[in-house]
């Protein structure tokens, strides 16, 4: 299906501010992917919005091109203030989007903290993954229940665990298709698009945080460092995933 069949006036206006022809074409390709995904999966499609830079770009494009794609945010209870501020700003700027927030199961979380302690994740990789399981994976399962496909902001160059990423992959763990419309984008392209489109983003990015998760598990990195080296920095780089995007 051609992109011309999808374009709406508001979306075309949004892209008028993009003067770089190559960047504009990449944005049009992402829009085509989003619109085709909506056509293919309908209400079976959802977008996992982490409120990072990539998802800020996707949110802006969806708000203009396909606001009926359902979105969800996982609030782990340990998100930075800046992330929650962005969540409020997104809701205010785009009231037309369908965004739901999922929280950890209260009883399960209370049991975990009572047994292991609030910062047990520092003690071992196993405990860190168990914490991610309670705060992220269990809410994710609820968010994906009944869905046929989900959209993510993953990119190949984000980490060594994602360098073989494809646009569409089978998510065997959750039993549905995973779509990554920005899989072939660079970090520089993401930021060029955010600035050209004047989209809101997490202000921690301006403080040296290219990748942002829970506050105690994220720190700033030096320019040129691996973008995800500030996540779970006390662990081996090959294991720095929370389990949301296990491949």
Main features:
single chain, 247 residues, alpha/beta, Rossmann fold, six-stranded mixed β-sheet, 7 helices, disordered N terminus
Description:
It is globular, with a radius of gyration of 18 Å. Helix 3 (about 55-65) packs across helix 7 and helix 5 (about 105-115) packs antiparallel against helix 6. The protein has one domain (about 5-240): 3-Layer(aba) Sandwich (Rossmann fold), CATH 3.40.50.620. It has helices spanning about 10-15, 20-40, 55-65, 80-95, 105-115, 125-145, 185-195; strands at about 45-50, 70-75, 100, 150, 170, 175-180. The model is unreliable at about 1-10 (pLDDT under 50). The longest helix is centred in the first third of the chain and has 21 residues, at about 20-40. It is of the alpha/beta class and about 250 residues long.
Strand-helix topology:
Elements: H1 9-15, H2 21-41, E1 45-48, H3 53-65, E2 70-74, H4 81-93, E3 99-102, H5 106-116, H6 125-144, E4 149-151, E5 168-171, E6 176-179, H7 187-197
Parallel strand pairs: 1-2, 1-4, 2-3, 4-6
Antiparallel strand pairs: 5-6
How are the strands ordered across the major sheet? Answer: 3-2-1-4-6-5
The tally of beta strands, per DSSP, is 6
Mean pLDDT value:
90
How large, in whole angstroms, is the Cα Rg? Answer: 18 Å
The rounded distance between the terminal residues' Cα atoms is 29 Å
Under CATH, the topology can be stated as Rossmann fold
- The count of domains is 1
Largest sheet: 6 strands, mixed
| SSE run | HHEHEHEHHEEEH
Number of helices: 7
CATH superfamily: HUPs
Give me the secondary-structure category: alpha/beta
């Amino acid at each position: 299906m051609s992109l011309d069949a999808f374009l709406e006036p508001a979306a075309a206006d949004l892209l008028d501010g993009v003067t770089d022809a190559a960047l504009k074409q990449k944005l049009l390709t992402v829009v085509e992917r989003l619109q085709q995904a909506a056509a293919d999966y309908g209400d079976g499609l959802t977008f996992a919005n982490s409120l990072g830079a990539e998802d800020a770009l996707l949110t802006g494009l969806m708000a203009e091109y396909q606001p009926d794609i359902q979105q969800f945010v996982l609030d782990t209870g340990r998100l930075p203030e800046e992330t929650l501020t962005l969540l409020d700003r997104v809701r205010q700027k785009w009231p037309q989007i369908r965004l739901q927030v999922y929280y950890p199961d209260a009883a399960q979380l209370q049991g975990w903290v009572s047994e292991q302690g609030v910062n047990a994740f520092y003690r071992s990789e196993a405990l860190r993954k168990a914490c991610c399981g309670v705060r992220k994976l269990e809410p994710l399962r609820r968010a994906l229940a009944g869905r046929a496909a989900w959209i993510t902001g993953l990119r190949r160059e984000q980490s060594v665990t994602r360098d073989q990423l494809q646009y569409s992959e089978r998510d065997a763990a959750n039993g549905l298709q995973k779509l990554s419309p920005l899989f072939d984008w660079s970090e520089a392209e993401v930021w060029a698009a955010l600035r050209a489109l004047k989209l809101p983003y997490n202000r921690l990015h301006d403080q040296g945080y290219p990748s942002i998760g829970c506050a105690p598990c994220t720190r700033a990195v030096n320019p040129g460092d691996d973008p995800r080296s500030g996540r779970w920095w006390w662990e081996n780089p090959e294991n720095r995933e929370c389990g949301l995007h296990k491949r």
